[in-house]
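New to this. Look over this protein:
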Amino acid sequence: MSTEASVIVVNWNGSRFLTPCLSALRAQTHPSYHVILVDNGSTDDSVALVRRDFPEVTVIQNDANLGFAAANNVGIRASRGEYIATVNNDTRVEPGWLAELTRSMDAHPSVGMCASKQLLTASPGTIDSAGICVDRAGLAWDRLGGEPDDARSDSPQEVFGPCAAAALYRRTMLDQIGLFDESFFAYMEDVDLAWRARLAGWKCLYVPTARVYHTHSATGGEGSPFKLRLLGRNTVWTIVKDYPWPHCLIYSPVILAYQVLAVIYTLILRRELNPLKGRLDALRGLRSLLKKRKAVQARRVISSREMLAQLTPLENPLEVFARYRHLRRATAARS
């Protein structure tokens, strides 16, 4: 008997994406699943389109845009599946996507998260994400992002966490560690969740046969002021909240250096203040964040040394900034 899965799709004024997204979900080969669309106060025809063309989809309407994290939580709380899949509205999953993810999770009881092979919609031969990496400076990025879809991306393996654009989570794990942190609003909420899961002893498996095509940042906009500000804030929040002692202290000079370099980089090359504003926002929220840190670290079952082993070794700063070249190219191609 197949384990039931709930698929959560968060939408905000994304009617142009919903037909291919939901049609692909309708075609899934997994025998036991249901789809919930959580609409974040859209002003376009999203809800009418779904109710007319996809009557099997459960629609939950929020009165306002609650953000990606909170809207997913609304869907998760309304769901019934033992497995929870999160899917961006700008994705198109292959027919066997959900079956491949659930099969992998069924086979590994210690796995609480599964990552898909995400390919760029505009360049299907290019990896968008093969799971999330986090380095010892606390920086997170999409593993193999921008690399060709070749033998290197075909190996199933343990990774730090999944990109929530197309991920599968075990409900038992979420019941233990909590859902997405709603204060993040959007961006990095999947990294924070992966940190909390790893600290609690859960693993993440990359499943290359679970393939999905993704139009990266079609809603928020890659490089938009809104995204840059939230990324700046949420990156700092994730480090403060999740990085365990004593290694957080040991690596603090490097962590600080990279945060300063990121601000200088955008100030000089892009004349963009929002990464700085985001980090200032993070400092203003530190008091409440330290309370969250206490709760997160209290659930930790692995040592700081074991956690450090799951982080990617530090790289040359030039390599760090090069991680995002493919996203800049993809955004330029859509302009």
